[in-house]
Amino acid sequence: MRIGDGPSQPLGSLIHGGKRHDTARNKTVPLVFVHSRAQNHTFSRRTVRFLTGHHLHTGSKRKRLATKAVAAIGAGALGLSLAACGNASDGGGNAGANGDPTLTFMLDWTPNTNHVGLYVAQQLGYFKDAGVNVKILPTAQAGAETSVENGVADIGFSKLTDLANADAHGAHLKLVFDLTQKPIARWCALKSRTDIKTPKDLAGKTFVTFGSAEQSASVRQMIRGAGGSGDFKTATAGTNTFRTLTSGKGDFAGFYANWEEVESQLDGPALNCFAADQWGVPGNPDQLGFAVKDSWAADPKNAANLRKFIKSARRGYDYALAHPDQAADILVDQTKSSRLDPKLARASMEKIVRERYWTDGDPTSLPGTVNVAEGQQYLDFQYDAGTYTDSHHRKLAKAPQASELSTNAYVTGKA
Questions:
Q1: Which residues on neighbouring strands pair with residue 175, listed in sequence order?
Q2: Pairing verdict, β 102-106 and 155-159
Q3: Predicted confidence band at 82 (pLDDT cuts at 50, 70, 90)?
Q4: Whose CA is closest to 198, among 98, 275, 289?
C-alpha cells in the first residue's frame, strides 16, 4: 500500500497485472505501483495523482505532458471498466439469483487486511443474512473514487482526504463508514541508517516519492516539529521502494504500519519509522472507509441497502477483531489471484488488533464512525499548506469541510 493518497487507498489501493521478479529479494514485485510488493495494476489511481500533479501546482512542460499522457490512459481504462462492469448506479436494482438486490463494491488496492471484513462478511453469509448480494470488484485503473462518481460501482474504498481532492475537482462523494480510527501512515528510513534517529534528521535527506503535495506537507511539518528546517530533497520512486532505499538512491519513504511495516519485520529490510501525528501533523490523515455518491445514496432504496451493507460489513470486521487468524485465512483464501502471503496477512491482523487501529474504547467492536473534528484538523492543515486545488489548479476559497465530506448516519442508523 502507499501513503499520502491512501492502504484509496492502487493505472491501489488500490490490482492485478504487470509485475517482475526481484532477484535481489526473490520476490515478485509490481512494474509501477511502488509501496507494495504484491501483484497489482501497472498504474493506480494514486499513481495517476502523483504523476499528474493532482495535488500539485503543475508548472512545467514535463508535468503537463505527463498529465495529458496519463489522463489519456486513464480515460481509456475507465471506458474499458464501464464496458466490462456496466453501470451500477441503480444501486441494487439488479437482483441476484436469490432475488436480493446486488451492490457493487470497488476496492482501492490489491486485497489486504483493510478489506478483510468484506471478505469475512461474504464468506460467512453476513451479507446474505441482511438480504443483499455484494460483488467485490478489483480496483479499476481510473480508481475507486472516479468509478463510484461515474456509476461503475455503488460503493468504493477511499479516505477522507482523497474525497476532498475528488470533490474539489467536481465529484460529489461522501465517506459513510470509517474503518481506521488511528493514523497508520508511517515515514521510514532503513534501520541501518544510524544517522536518522528522529524526523529532524530527515532535513536535507532525499524523500522517495512521486511528488505528492500532501506527502511533502506532512514530511515538512514533521521535520519542523522535531526542530529541523523542514527542507528535504526528493527522488522519484522506482519499481520497489524498499529497493530504492537499499540502493542508496533515497533516504526515506512513506509506508503503512499495518502492512509494509509488518512486511519489513517479517522479511526485511528493517525500518525505523515515525508517525506524523506524533511530530506535529494535526488530526487523523488516515480515515479510510466506504464512499458513495450523494445522488446514489439519496434514493431511498439505495439508502436502505447501504444500511444493510454497512451493518453486515461491521459484523465482518468485528469477527476479524475477535478471530484475527481465521479472518486472515479467509482473506487469503477468497483472494487467491492476489497471491497474498498468509504469514503477512496473519501478522497484519495481529498488529491491527494489538495496536487497536480500528477501535476507540471497546477493543472488540468497530465503531465505524468518522471523527469529524480530527478530520477537519487535518484538512485545515493541508489546505493551509496549499494542497487542495480545483480542476484549474487554483487554491480553494476555503478548506474542504469534513462535515460535508462525511456522514455517520448510516452507521448509527439515523439515515
A1: 291, 406
A2: parallel
A3: very low
A4: 275
Q: How many CB atoms lie within 10 A of CB 8?
A: 33
Q: What angle separates helix 300-322 from helix 324-334, to the nearest 10 degrees?
A: 120
3-state secondary structure 215-241: HHHHHHHHHHHCCCCCCCEEEECCCCH
The model carries a pTM of 0.80
Residues 332-368 pLDDT 10s: 999 999 999 999 999 999 999 999 999 998 999 999 9
Angle at which helices 116-123 and 324-334 cross, to 10°? 80
Kindly provide the residue ranges of all beta strands, DSSP E only, lying in 23-163, ordered along the sequence.
Answer: 27-30, 102-106, 133-137, 155-159
Kind plus residue range of the DSSP H or E element containing 73: helix 61-85
Nearest Cα to Cα of residue 301 among 120, 92, 29: 92
Q: Which residues contact 280 (CB under 8 A, 6 or more apart)?
A: 221, 222, 224, 225, 226
Mode of pairing for the β-strands spanning 133-137 and 185-190: unpaired
Long-range CB contacts (< 8 A, 24+ apart) of 387-391? 387/55, 387/213, 387/214, 387/217, 388/164, 388/165, 388/168, 389/55, 389/57, 389/168, 390/168, 390/169, 391/168, 391/169, 391/170
pLDDT digit string, tens, across residues 123-169 = 999 999 999 999 999 988 889 999 999 999 999 999 999 999 999 99
d(CA 263, CA 38): 11
Phi and psi at 27, nearest 5°, equal -135, 150
Burial of 48 (0-12, 13-18, 19+ CB in 10 A): buried
Q: Residue 248: exposed, middle, or buried by beta-carbon count in 10 A (0-12, 13-18, 19+)?
A: exposed
Going from the C-alpha of 357 to that of each of 146, 185, 274, the distances in angstroms are 27, 11, 16
Q: Identify which of 59, 63, 64, 44 has the alpha carbon closest to the alpha carbon of residue 3.
A: 44
Taking alpha carbons only, the member of 326, 367, 380, 370 closest to residue 349 is 326
Residue appearing with cell numbers 495517476: 48
Q: State the cell numbers at 236.
A: 522519484
